[in-house]
Structure formats: C-alpha cells, structure tokens
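Table S2 (continued). Query chain:
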Amino acid sequence: MKKNTKIRGINLVYDDLGKGDVMVFIHGQPFNRSMWRDQIDEFSRTHRLIIPDLRGYGDSGITDRIVLLDEVAMDVMHLLEELEIQSAIFVGLSMGGQIVFELYRLRPGLFDGMVLADTDARSETSDGYINRINLSQKILTEGMQQFTAERIHHFMCENTFQTQPATVAHLTDMMTTTSAAGAAAVQRGRAERRDHTPILGDIHCPTLVIVGEEDAFTPVSTAEYMHTRIPGSILKVIEKAGHLPNMEQPEKFNAALREFLGP
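Corresponding output:
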C-alpha cells in the first residue's frame, strides 16, 4: 500500500506491504521504488516490506544542490522510527547498498541482516569524484533524457537488452522520469561518500553479497572484496545479469534471497 509521511523536511513516499518480520528495500540511482516490483509478490507473502522512494527520487520530495548518503540514511531511520520498527533486514542495490552501510555505521542495532547487491563499500576514487561532479552538472544542463540515452546500456547486460523489452522499458521509464535536480544532488553526494572498508570486519549480522555476473559498474571482483572482509558472509553471482539482477533475473535473485532468509 502506497503511503506518505513528512520526514526531515520532505514528503517521503513509500510502500508498506505484507506482514511479518520486516525487510527494507533501498533502491539505486537513478531509479525509484518500482525497481523492486519483481520482489514484492515473493516476499510480501512472508514479510512486511518497507520500500521507500528516496529523497529526490520517484514520488518523494527533492532537496536542492547536494544530498549526502548519510542524510538519506537518516531519512530511512526516521521513517522506521515513525513506523515503530525496531529492526529489519535491509536490502540495498548500488547506491542503496552504500546507504545500507551508512545505516549500519549509524545504527547497527537495527539490523537483523543485510543484503548488498551490486554495490561497493569503498569511497570514490579521485577520478570518480571529478566524474561525478561533472556528471551532476551535465544532468542539470542536458536533462535525464540525454543521460538515459547515453548511459542506459551500462546498467543491464546485452542479453537483457536483446531478450527482455519489458524490463528495458521499465528501466527507461524510471531513468527518464527521475528529476534532474534530484539526480544531480545525489550525484554530488555520492562523490563525497565515505570509505566503509574499515567497518566490514565489524559487520556481525547475517550478510548476503549478490552481484550480476556482467555488472559493468561494480563487477564480481568488487563483490568478492566485500565478501572476503565481512565475517561469515555469503556470495552469490547471478548469471546473465548486469548491474540490476533483481530486474534482469528476478527468479534467480529471489531464490538467492529466499535461501538467505531461510525457511
């Protein structure tokens, strides 16, 4: 069920679905909460799902200039406090995974478990920092239609583009309808993101690291980097998937997540 609430100066829109132990799904950039729609039927049967549109994305409010990832994490924390949720399993993809790291740094007691999908614990490189700052300005100048036309093929593998037109159409819609101001603000914030490598060894909740075999942004080697440093973590590689395995191969992604959750 779609809901909204006032959180830290913005209107935050989220889905609240199902009953049971809580799972919080945190989307990537430049997407919105609809990227998780292939997970809803499977997991709302057994869990309560909280799926927000993050600040600057989807139906939620926009903050101008810069949005730091710890600010987005604070939005999620305040939402859970308002809903009187004491703990949850957090599922974050790409930027969403980096927000999960911020949440764990700030409130490790919230975590019953974490799923890190196609993400990176490390801070931006010096070249990456410059690229993100430049990209934020390019988005404001040229808009999301141009951004999508130039970059959409980086987000999914070629097999997906050739065989799944409905999935590609969904991705295109999410990207082109994202606010340029919201996307630019978060690009600047991601350029400033911290290095979470030092906390990886201190993550003591059950952890699943999952990655598309053909991810061009955060390749398998990046997932292995986190997996080898998080005690007891599980690594799953999804074949025939790029940066968005939950959309490209939802049955395989869901099976990996269901196995992680247990009976």
